[in-house]
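[Q] Does anyone have a clean structure-token version of this?
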Amino acid sequence: MTDIREINERIQQESAFVELLNLEVGKAIIGQKYMLERLLIGLLSNGHLLLEGVPGLAKTLAIKSLASAIHSKFSRIQFTPDLLPADLLGTMIYNQKKEEFTVRKGPLFSNFILADEINRAPAKVQSALLEAMQERQVTIGEETFHLEEPFLVLATQNPIEQEGTYPLPEAQLDRFMLKIVIGYPNKEEERLIIRQNLNPEPIKINPVVTTNEILKARKVVKEVYMDEKIEKYILDIVFATRFPADNNLGKLKQLISYGASPRASINLALASKAYAFVKRRGYVIPEDVRAVCHDILRHRIGLTYEAEAENVTTDEVVNEVLNAVEVP
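[A] Here you go.
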């Protein structure tokens, strides 16, 4: 029998660093609570993130600030159409003194990778990055190198410019645990952003958490209690995207070309546990599942031409599914 009280007490102790991280990153980032929460969920669930939003919404700053608040190595890669896989992974360099080829590692050998504007790079580069994300290793020449944990890829894409871009194929999008869509700050937040940027003193983010603490927290996240009813709820949501007619969602049958993959079920369970951990709770409730559901499913549901013609979005489909599936 699982002792929920004991798990709850342990989670409250182990998740104390979350508040520290939020305070430190909050020095540089005003508002955007939703984005910061999702960055933490990805970090604690060992899942990569795709951030989408118009320029100037502090996507890059948020990722850099999070990396600075953790004792870790950070690399930023600006994706461009002329980028090559070797620019990411590294290559073999001839050493004249030793008269042999030696490995020069690329920027991918860091803990936090910011892949800025991932849709600007051609398919070959995107595939090289996604392979490293999945396998957690890189092969250069005849040598294979394991990437140091924690290894987290945070990719950004700009939704307003489509000229000269290479959109990520649906199968590759599935490799990202969360797709986060970021909106504008409100008036009060933007007023504070202006004041902060006019301040002559630069903001310094200090490291407050070690990578070992993050790795330890990842193990603890998996111990968060999830009842069988919550597991069934997650399965009901995912299966409703595949077989809408079986869930009184016949109207969605013409709008969905394919439903969420089994990765969606796994990631929805993991993200729900991580969300409960961030909220300093030792058990998952239905609200946790609903809170992360859009981020997990929005890039895993395919829409038909009819849906696109009617300007239906995957977020609207997820809303319909959540309204139809019975909450435990």
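[Q] Thanks! Anything notable?
[A] Residues 262-278 form the longest helix (17 residues).
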